[in-house]
């Protein structure tokens, strides 16, 4: 339980401001949402000024790397070559790649081709015209994490593949646009479900977004589909990812022998886009 603060006490967030001028109203709002049955975030999930600054820096490097990959990824390159470029570039910027050795993951990025949903491992496979590739990058700077992924079409791709990529991006962007501070996480899955339904695509349920920033994966779990239970409130100060995985065919998923690579059971194409976002006082800010 949190200690009851008086209005003139210093705020619990270490801002050195008086509670009544800092998180007093915030706490009142959360209290009333909690009475309505919504889980509310633990104070550990509310980032400090200093945390936010560090997280922003890390997110900027992640964004820079994903931007640069546009000029590097083309038919003929292998996913191992992309991995090496990201590893070298990350170190050059005095950062570390978070995936490397994370729970035994052997490489610096995830590279997920065509029917691979996520967590594909870079290898010597050569990318060929028509493939669709997801690259998922997470940097660590001074202990702070920035997590983002994008789709890269390899040369010319089919109209169907392009539509899947564009709709998945729309799922991410529209859910961010419609989410407001103090909304429950339900909003994200509700928005994505509407878009996926409209296009007759399916949403992967086995993986979700996650709190991030001070650790790779923190609470809360971010559902990308409709849930009937009340989910946690997105309170100002929280940092989390939204990273919908959308399949052309069925949502069913298989994990390969390597214990990482997740593929669609029916071998249909899958796409994913991811941002790290910050819940500000008045809006959701994209950090990547
Ligand atoms: N970056 C992924 C995510 O969005 C996690 C990858 S875990 C790894 O959460 F070990 F595969 F790198
Ligand atoms: Co993530
Ligand atoms: Co990621």
Structure description:
- The protein is an alpha+beta fold.
- The chain has a single domain, classed as Creatinase/methionine aminopeptidase superfamily (Creatine Amidinohydrolase, Alpha-Beta Complex).
- Helix content is about 30%, strand content about 20%.
- It has 5 helices and 15 strands.
- The strands form 5 sheets. Strands 1, 2, 4 and 5 form a 4-stranded antiparallel sheet that branches. A 3-stranded antiparallel sheet has the order 3-12-11, with no helix packed on it.
- A hairpin with a 6-residue loop joins strand 11 and strand 12.
- Helix 2 crosses helix 3.
- The longest helix has 24 residues.
- It is globular and about 65 Å long.
- The two termini are about 35 Å apart.
- The site of 2-amino-4-trifluoromethylsulfanyl-butyric acid has 12 residues, from strand 4.
